[in-house]
Design a protein that fits this description.
two-stranded antiparallel sheet; 2 strands; about 140 residues; mainly alpha
């Protein structure tokens, strides 16, 4: 739809959140890592790298989040550290099931989709459990809400 109407992007909240978060991961996280961690010449552990990238994405998207949703998550870093390592596995299982569905009978697809459903369900459950933590966000009237 953006091809037909380029102004569509201007009013698409999802695009702005994705763009700012992606910019944070692509530009801010490497800059932060280089400035504060690469002086020692060591590679970062996966949880530390995920925390840096999550924080960078949230910093860049923070103005939009605060204006549109009126809250700041204090536990999103914890949720991402728990969930992100499983995303590539879930994507791989989903890809295998999708490709199998294109060439094999539905019964085989149902069998191959079970691991993808399991990983995606576990990820959703983890996100739901972390979201239930009380005092996990700062609420405020920062914008339209």
């Amino acid at each position: 739809s953006a091809w037909l109407n380029p102004f569509f992007i201007w009013f698409d909240l999802g695009w702005w959140l994705s763009f700012t978060a992606f910019f944070g991961v692509l530009v801010l996280a490497p800059t932060f890592t280089q400035r504060f961690f690469k002086k020692e010449g060591k590679d970062l552990s996966m949880p530390v790298q995920i925390a840096i990238e999550t924080t960078s994405a949230q910093i860049m998207a923070l103005p939009i989040i605060m204006v549109i949703f009126g809250e700041l998550s204090l536990i999103s870093i914890i949720a991402n550290i728990l969930v992100i390592p499983f995303i590539p596995i879930a994507m791989a299982f989903t890809f295998v099931a999708g490709e199998a569905g294109a060439i094999h009978p539905p019964r085989l697809l149902a069998i191959l989709a079970v691991p993808a459903q399991g990983f995606l369900g576990a990820i959703a459950s983890g996100i739901f459990l972390v979201s239930r933590i009380t005092l996990g966000a700062i609420l405020g009237h920062f914008g339209w809400r």
